[in-house]
Amino acid sequence: MERGPESEGKPVRAPLGWLAALTLVFLANCGGGAGGPGPLLPPPPSQPSPPSPPSPPASTDPCSPTPAGPVVNVQDAPYGARGDGASDDTVAIQKAVNAVAGTGGTVLVPAGTYMVDAIASIFIKGNMTFQMAAGAVLKAIPNGADNYEILTVSQAANVTIMGGTLAGDYGNPVTHTGTTGEWGMGLSLSGASNVTVVGVTARDCWGDGFYLQNGCTGVALCSLNAVHNRRNGLTLTSAASVTIQNSVFTGSGGTLPEDGVDLEPNPGETIDQVTITGCTMSGNAGDGLEDGVDLTFTGSAFITRVTLSGNTITGNGANTLDPIPRSGIEVSNVAGHQITGNTVDANAGNGILLRDGATGLTVTGNTVENNAQHGLWDLVGGNVLAGNVISGNGLSP
Prior knowledge:
About 5% of the residues lie in helices and about 40% in strands.
């Protein structure tokens, strides 16, 4: 190291202040004499921050879907739905659906009354959510058609429909201008897969509130309300792996069969693996729940693996168009179904009726009371009937 002339030949000395500080540190670490402070301890190691709580996992309950983005509001430009109860919003809503289809995003329908050309229908596409606010109503423009669908999901997969009301033209007053047909639907699923419908009301439809056909698979229907529909609250003709839970089907009447829920395949069709639980079927002119294959379709139509559990079926069968009294639960021409833990009371016909080839059924733990005719009437035999509470019915058993 090159040094200047003032230090040449002399040892380099540290400044006195630095040596004093070093001495103090040394003494402190060595105890500093009697009564001095103890040794300096190293500072405690820094404590790591507690980890952030993990994000909750995505819900695996099909009845608790989480809408995802991007979100498109049907009232925003360039869609421009009005929701004023007068404008025809069919095209605007369909444009919003088309923009979101396949993205995994959500179409949002705010509160309002949106008039819909139900003959044209709004087609919900795959890989998307269609979310209606609690005060959103899609209302069919009055028509005279035999069949219509306010919302349609056809050959699409991974669809969620949430909230809102689908209103037909069979209200009070009836605004439907035709007199024939029975296929005016609120929501129609046709060949659709992995579909969840939650919290939707379908009312006053010329046919059914909800309709599943053409081989739907993997469908969850949760917390639905089907109110005052002309044919049925819900019909299944061809579907598999369907769960229906915590829903209400009430007030069906006007054209047969007038059921709350109707499982009824056509020739060449199968209904398989259906669970109906925690639902209420009340005040329907037909059966609360009908589960059967028409005798003329024997060997060409099938219903397999059906479970009815924990439902309330009450006050059905009054004022039916059918000359034969209707029941709370009516099962025919099927085998092996489970009917357990239901409450069936105050129906105008029988409580539970098993007829026309209904065999191998398990009917257990039901409460069947105060029905006008038989409580539990097994016309076939070969069924397991056990642990049912049967009382107060018009006829025995």
